[in-house]
Amino acid sequence: MNGRLLLVCRLLVRDLRRRRTETVLLLVAITTATATLTLSLALNELVTRPYQQTRAATAGPDLVIEPGSTGPEALAALSPLTAAPGVTGHSGPYPLLFKMLTVRDLTVRVVVEGRDATPAALDRPAVTDGTWVRPGGVVIERAFADALGVHTGDTVSIDGHPMQVAGTAVTAARPAYPYVAWHIPSSILHEAGGLVWVDRSDIATLAGTQPLTYTLNLKLADPQADISVFGPERRNPKFRGWHIRTWQQIADVNGRLNKKAQEALLVGSWLLTILALTGVAGIVAGRIIGQRRRVGLLKAVGAGPAMIAAVHLAEYLVVGLAAAGIGLAAGWLAAPLLFGPTAGLIGSVGAHPPLRVVAAATALALGIAVAATLVPVVRAAATSTIHTLADAATPPRRRRWAIWLSRRLPTALLIGIRINARRPHRARLVTANTLVSTATLAAVLMAQAQDHTPVPLGHSTLPDRRDERTIQAILLVAVVACVVALLNTIVSTWAAVLDTRQPLAVARALGATPGQAATGLAVAQLLPAVPGVAAGIPIGIGLYLLFSNGDQQYAPASWLLAMALGVLLAIAALTALPAMAAARHPVADTLQSAPA
């Protein structure tokens, strides 16, 4: 047993040293796949759990109550609730005003909440920039501040009273901008608006003649309970006209800000995973083809299927697990830099990926190793040693019309067609790679072509953050898809270069020039890319329309045509350099290095 293990280790080290370029390509391909998978899982973590993280960081309440009355009557109505059965803690009541805020040439609705300088035990907004409330200063909810374009130190005016921005903060007691539930006191109709906090001492000045209302934050013994905690009926008549929000309702409203972006990231994660796996499949298929002769040599010296499996599995495990570790770290660290929760919430992926993410990345690497090992083992059991040693490529199907047509084709085009006929599976992977990347770019163009309705906020309007985040998510998927597609193209081109050294040398020996050989190799990559581009455009448009509501505008045909030509030009540029390098290699050296 020790002798076999030592033999496997020696063959592993020898093959990794002998095939350094192929090993690097395999490492890059698997790293890209695991990094893409990890990135997709991390992005899903960022957009699905931000409210829970914000609630934990800010001691969010279970129930937020605003009475249907104002002034002393409102305080009297809230007072008995703090001692009701099932209530374990509270903060407030805090005074509320519904005013207009002016900054530069914008005048928008704003909910003004009076707070104390000392942080409360329940609902203590987390300051993200600057300081907490102070007399004469205002703290603006972060998403609202981003929409307004204001920063710490700027001056805003609330109902004609100038105030300096002391800082920005986030809270779990109210939905983020624009869903903070601005309303006229005693009215149950909600309007879009933003949230600000001021020192309690400034409330009387800001209120003027407007009566104050109040908000009360409650902590319940059963966080899943709602208004029913105050009576046997779920809808208690004494609370008619009140504004009562459970933390689940607030979480649901905040979830709407990320819903479209989450859908875009979900669909994008599947597309990116498919894209990354096509790159891995391409390099693994190339290595399996290149190892045909090796399988025959192992069989010739007496190795059985188990030994052949051990030799191949060891190599792929070493490379796969190393790539999984690199890809896991890269994807997890990149996610918060590329995309985050809405500005009104706190969200992070943590310093270390959870076990399920590590398991998914490791499972992908192991799956690649097992799949890559399975083919040589099956071939060893089903193919004769002599046939395996011959290492014959897939013979092209010879048809009379094809032969007649090939005589009239330019040399470069003929070489490209023969390369794809020799390795048809690689050509299909190029088509899949181009299709996914083109579909993603078509969805981006569709998103950019829409007229997005702004949010009305009284006298002024502001952009809808939902549309902005959806476009941001689609752009992120598109950028990552382009990077993965570029890596896949580079890996596929180099794999094709290594696999076609002998056929290109034979073509040159028969009279083809280096330029024709290089162009032929580039054509071999471009030909399967054309149907991928043609199919990717309608698929991308269809995916966008599938997850969109209402009437949608189509991207101009000129945009789509320019994008399609850009994809093909990028593929041609990426294949040009390795193709020229392969075509200029001396023919004699290449033919002498071919296995006998």
Distinctive features:
two-stranded antiparallel sheet; single chain; about 600 residues; 19 helices; 3 domains; alpha+beta; ABC3_permease_C; Macrolide_Exporter_MacB
End-to-end span in angstroms? 33 Å
* Count of discrete structural domains: 3
Query: Which structural category do the helix and sheet elements fall into?
Result: alpha+beta
Question: Which stretches are low in confidence, meaning pLDDT under 50 for 5 or more residues running?
Answer: none
Mean pLDDT: 76
SSE blueprint:
Blueprint: H1 2-18, H2 20-48, H3 50-57, E1 63-66, H4 71-78, E2 87-103, E3 106-115, E4 126-130, E5 137-141, H5 142-148, E6 155-158, E7 161-170, E8 194-199, H6 203-207, E9 213-220, E10 243-246, H7 247-290, H8 292-300, H9 305-338, H10 355-382, H11 385-390, H12 400-406, H13 411-422, H14 424-448, E11 455-456, E12 461-462, H15 465-499, H16 501-509, H17 514-546, H18 557-583, H19 587-592
Parallel strand pairs: 3-8, 5-7
Antiparallel strand pairs: 1-9, 1-10, 2-3, 2-6, 2-9, 4-7, 5-8, 6-7, 11-12
